[in-house]
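Table S5 (text form). Sequence records supplied for joint modeling of the two-component complex.
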Amino acid sequence: MGAAGRGWEVWCDGMEITQFTYFQQMAGIECKPVSVELTYGLERICMFTQGKDNVFDLIWNNDGIKYQEIFHQAEKEYSAYNFEFANIEHLLKNFEIAELECKFLLEKKLPLPAYDQCLKASHIFNLLDARGVIGVAQRTEYISRIRELAKGSGKSWLESQK
Amino acid sequence: MAELFIELFSEEIPAKLQIDAREKIKQLLEDKLKKKEINFKQSKSFSTPKRLVFTIDGISEKLEQKQKVIKGPRANAPNEALEGFIKSNNLNKSDIYRKNIEKGEFYFANIKPKIIDVSKELQLIVPETLHLYTWKKSMRWSNYDLNWGRPLRSIIAIFNNKVINFNFFHIKSGNLTIIDSISEDKLKKVSDFNSYLNILESQNIILDQEKRKNIIVKKMNSICVSKKLKNKFDEKLIEEVVNLVERPNVIMGKFNEIYLKIPQEILIVTMQQHQKYFPLFDESDKLTNLFLLVANLADIKGYIKKGNQRVIEARLSDASFFWEKNKTQSLVKQVSKLKNLFYFKKLGTFYDRTQRLRKIAPIISSQLNLSKEKIEIAASICKSDLVSDLVGEFPELQGIMGKYFAIEQGFESDVATAISDHYLPVGINSQVPKNKIGAAVAIIDKIDVLVGFFGIDEKPSSSKDPFALRRTAIGLLRIILENKLTIKLKDLINYSVNVYGEQGVKFTNNNVVKDILYFLKERIKNLMKEKKIRNDIIEAVSSSHFSDDFLEFNKKCQAFNKNINSDIYKNIIGTYKRVSNIIDDELKNDKKNLSGMPESSLFKKEEEENLYKKINDIRKYFSTSKEKGNYDETLKILADTKLITDNFFDNVVVNDDNSDIKKNRLELLQMFCKTYNNFIDFSKIEGI
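The corresponding structure-token record, covering 850 residues in total, follows.
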């Protein structure tokens, strides 16, 4: 997404529980002040504090509701979709469409909806990646295409603020 | 005599950056002091992830500067030069005067004797040094302008027990160190290095990286001895963990033995690369289910050990599940799954790629006289493991997993090995494939990559090489050179271009063969430089090298580099230089085009005839000789002309009054040079 920054993987007893990253660049633009991002990790910290080996065994609240009861169905269905059933041909087409749409909206100087399309393209790329259909070189190419969309959106938005 | 003590406290800096900063900043400090003629006894640097520490002792507090005269820029130099001179030497305008010396008029300055307060100097030197250091990777944070490895929080700078006051960006130097713990950070006052060490010691922090390393290695070795285990500790990993901790604590962990039946590489990658553990081996070098880890805290309640064991169990349990599932999935059947793995936009899928490799297989098999069937099979299945779950989880094991699957499925062992070896070499220190089938598949795989990307004009630029084509080209060359393979690269490249064409891939570049051969030539020049071949020899060989035989390129470089000072080489180069000097002298005065084609009718002397005949003999030799690698005969023939050229120069005056005769003699000499340059371009050779 044209973001660049340094930071840490945060480890606890051999498990990466989160990532802490400084965003020196967003959409290819140098930022000041520099914001920080704390990614995922609540579940892993809970597994650690509750001493559980399986995320679904986490206790959700004082009424004995487990993580499983809330999230298991989603995990199962999305895993099936992401890894097995997402239609590759459709995804490839959708990526192209989102990219075209983003570029078109950037021409019309509409950075916000353009950025939506950029996010959509990025999401589709993640799905393609999960389906395991993208080789190393092709991956680089997709990432650079998404970065271009993000950069365009960022630049256009900044111009709209002048 | 006084001591300088500096502490730079930051958020945790990764091991490699830390080591670089530790060594380079120390060096920069020393250089600055030396430049200012401030003497010192010794300097040391230490680091933990959060602390970069420098101490220099035996510095005198006062510096006596003797009277001297220093030379500045030329009197007619631009004003900036003069200003720079004044500034860098702390001069006044009145100290400066002009004086004529042999080389012209220059500025000079009288430096008056004075006593300099070293602490004042350090006030400038320390921040200047910090400014001077550039991080290999750095960052900005918050609203600050400073670029540092990781956020810098405080600076201690003390000389002779007193703070050296300066500002470095938003930070003011002081004498307080941060002692951080999980609950709160405390500040402690430091008066010198020794008091600082005492503070750290009371917190069980070991500042000296060498001490930490000793503690860790000693502990690990003693565990190995007591458990009768073998240590094969990875030196790089030791270096890394030493610089990941402040309070090293070695812990032994264990995982379920059942995982020992999955391929070792999976276990080792998981432990070593993902988890930064040290795998342990028994006395017969067999991997055990024990490992060592280095924590940053004492494991009082055993949570660290338990937590780490839980993590490795979970990872190995996934890996084991995938191994059982993947090992029986037929590699041949998996090939069609590669139709869904996209290689690169216009270059098709990995299925297309393996089909291309299969089609080139017969060409390389006949060039290297190897089994066509084996190369075809290996080429077809060499990418199949890319669609396995295991390679999805462990991308770094691509090829290696394929090899294991192939062994499980009963493929011949050299075919199985070719699957893992065709990716080699993976880096400058990596081996090239020694297995012949592996080398053959590696070669055609790399040619396919180069041809594809060059074909669609995705060539590397001077700064960018996103598809690592340089590495691919160097890999290809290394396989050829290190296995001493005689192959016809041009044919392979041409054939590969055709195969792409058959698949309907449209190339926008019509000069693929020429471009790739040029690219390879540039790479081999770099390879030769790395092998410490003299630069002029590389240029001389390169300048006369027009074929696709890079083995020959290498052999010529090696032969010249090794023997250039032997008599026969000296003799040949001497003779050549004698001839070429005359041409050079002549062309300096009078620019004319020499074709190297003398008219025999214009020869007036026997020596001219003799030389002409000799050159023609050599030409005939070059056009028929197939001598490769061993250049004894070529060298003998080239050296053999010495007598004839000596005779020529003794009896023939090139500079004849008749301009046609003179030109003809120069043409004869030009012919001589051109002929010699068939071997290597002698005009590039320096010296003698």
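Note: The radius of gyration of chain A is 19 Å.
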